[in-house]
């Protein structure tokens, strides 16, 4: 039993229990603070708030550690694949062969979207942002598969396996369809003989009479990219999913909210923003040196910095290496990669970035990898969402299975006008 914390407020002392995680993370349990003292804890941006106790992912941002269900990301990147890791993220342990085969089959069988959903996607304007279409389609899954989305926790948990496979598989299908809509092209039916990643590339790029030809390096890079994004603890979108789930909402409604949260440039939208930044630097004739100076006075060096990692993002190390390998194998000479390398070296040697612990994050290189795979920039954040889906789904499940789950409902410190009277319209100036 850990020692309690003692807090002195208004000359009174209050005791609060402390909690320790399995990796020695320590927290003060302030849940009774307001009822015993009248104070609430204030932590705008939640930089110092443990919002839950979770068993899914561990990050030590000070030394750059990321583990899914205890297993280091480096081992998973080398030995596992996206679907196997997804199973583990969802259910807690690596699957045996029977479990893995059944999971892969369930993903494959749930890949086709309802014809009505396909038709609805076609109704979007061709200049729609793919993230907007994806969010709408995930939300609409509760209309196309209402039996999986009842908002009755017990029933939704009973149907969890089917709902989870549907969310993971149909995110990829809806993403490929959204891409085809923006190109004014007919959608491609999934090919059940293909792996998850090759089927996605087929749904994106096959043309009538010309099936997409899988290139092993491309397939592996895509699978790795998805695996590296599969979960990341209580980030903005995952916390959003948990927030929505805490109100009892079904899985599809919860993950659709995650898509909205992911969209912003400070979060999943950063991969698009990195490429835009690199293209702008290239167009201006700068090799990155001028931009580094500007980034010290207000401009953001996109793909750098992280709320939790105050050291190298381990995913950035893996994807940076994969990026080099892929471009070499495909014989692609991307000037943006040279600029990115130069920015990285310059930033890592610069006091501004060193003193603020700003290191490359996963998005710094993922955009270059995605571009090499032929994925257009406006699809980058959608790719992130396909990868993150298992993490969102596992976090939804953790909330739904929590025996004493309370609705997430933070407090605020009100700073608006004090009590005042209503002024009739004719008396207002
Ligand atoms: N470029 C230049 N300066 C930066 C950057 C950056 N990318 N990131 C942070 N800083 C500076 C801030 O200006 C601030 O400086 P100051 O102390 O002089 O005011 C200091 O570093 C701390 O920055 P905060 O914004 O307070 O850090 P926070 O933890 O809130 O933000 C975030 C983290 C949002 C990721 C930020 O680093 C950022 O905007 N990075 C660029 C966008 C990006 O790459 N996002 C992807 C994140 S990873 C992911 O979601 C997959």
Based on CA atoms alone, the radius of gyration comes out at 23 Å
In terms of DSSP E residues, the strand content is: 5-15%
- Helical percentage: 40-55%
Structural class: mainly alpha
What is the terminal-to-terminal distance?
Answer: 63 Å
Small molecules held by this entry: acetyl coenzyme *A
Q: Report the major sheet.
A: 3 strands, antiparallel
Low-confidence spans: none
Summed over residues and divided by their number, the pLDDT gives a mean of 95
What is the 3D shape?
A: globular
Output the number of helix runs.
Answer: 19
Spatial ordering of strands, largest sheet? 5-6-7
Helix and strand string, N-terminal first? EEEEHEEEHHHHHHHHHHHHHHHHHH
Would you count the extended β strands for me? Answer: 7
Walk me through this protein's architecture.
This protein is mostly helical and 429 residues long. Helices cover 52% and strands 6% of the residues. The protein has 19 helices and 7 strands. The chain has helices spanning 33-37, 73-79, 82-91, 97-109, 115-122, 130-144, 153-158, 160-182, 196-205, 216-228, 236-246, 251-262, 270-283, 289-295, 314-329, 335-348, 351-355, 363-372, 380-401, and strands at residues 5-9, 12-16, 18-20, 26-28, 57-60, 65-68, 71-72. The strands form 3 sheets. A 3-stranded antiparallel beta sheet has the order 5-6-7. Strands 1-2 form a two-stranded antiparallel ribbon. The protein is globular. The termini are far apart. 42% of the residues are buried. Bound molecules: acetyl coenzyme *A (ACO). Acetyl coenzyme *A (ACO) binds at residues 266-268, 270, 295, 300-307, 356, 358, 361-363.
């Amino acid at each position: 039993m850990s020692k309690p914390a003692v807090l002195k407020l208004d000359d009174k002392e209050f005791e609060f229990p402390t909690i320790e995680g399995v990796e020695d993370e320590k927290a003060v349990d302030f849940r009774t603070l307001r009822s015993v003292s009248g104070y609430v804890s204030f932590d705008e941006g939640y930089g110092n708030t443990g919002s839950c106790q979770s068993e899914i992912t561990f990050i030590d941002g000070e030394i750059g550690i990321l583990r899914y269900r205890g297993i280091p990301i480096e081992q998973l990147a080398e030995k596992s694949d996206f679907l196997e890791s997804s199973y583990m993220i969802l259910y807690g342990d690596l699957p045996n062969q029977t479990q893995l085969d059944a999971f892969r089959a369930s993903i494959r069988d749930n890949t086709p979207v309802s014809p009505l959903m396909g038709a609805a996607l076609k109704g979007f304007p061709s200049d729609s942002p793919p993230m907007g279409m994806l969010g709408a389609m995930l939300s609409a899954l509760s209309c196309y598969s209402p039996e999986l989305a009842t908002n009755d926790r017990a029933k939704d948990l009973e149907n969890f396996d089917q709902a989870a496979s549907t969310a993971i598989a149909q995110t990829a299908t809806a993403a490929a369809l959204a891409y085809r809509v923006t190109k004014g092209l007919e959608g491609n039916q999934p090919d059940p003989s293909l792996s998850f990643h090759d089927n996605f590339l087929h749904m994106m790029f096959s043309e009538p009479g010309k099936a997409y030809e899988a290139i092993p390096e491309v397939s592996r890079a895509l699978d790795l990219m998805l695996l590296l994004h599969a979960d990341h603890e209580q980030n903005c979108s995952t916390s959003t999913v948990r927030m929505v789930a805490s109100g009892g909402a079904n899985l599809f409604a919860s993950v659709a909210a995650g898509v909205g949260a992911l969209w912003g440039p400070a979060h999943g939208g950063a991969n698009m923003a990195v490429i835009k930044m690199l293209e702008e630097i290239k167009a201006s004739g700068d090799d990155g040196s001028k931009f580094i100076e500007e980034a010290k006075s207000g401009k953001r060096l996109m793909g750098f910095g992280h709320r939790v990692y105050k050291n190298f993002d381990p995913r950035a190390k893996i994807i940076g290496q994969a990026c080099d390998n892929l471009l070499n194998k495909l014989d692609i000479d991307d000037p943006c990669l040279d600029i990115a390398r130069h920015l990285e070296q310059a930033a890592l040697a610069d006091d501004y970035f060193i003193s603020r612990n700003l290191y490359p994050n996963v998005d710094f290189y993922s955009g270059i990898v995605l571009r090499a795979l032929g994925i257009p920039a406006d699809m980058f954040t959608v790719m992130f969402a396909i990868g993150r889906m298992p993490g969102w789904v596992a976090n939804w499940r953790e909330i739904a299975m929590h025996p004493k789950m309370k609705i997430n409902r933070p407090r605020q410190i009100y700073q608006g006008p004090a009590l005042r009277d209503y002024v009739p319209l004719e008396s207002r100036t």
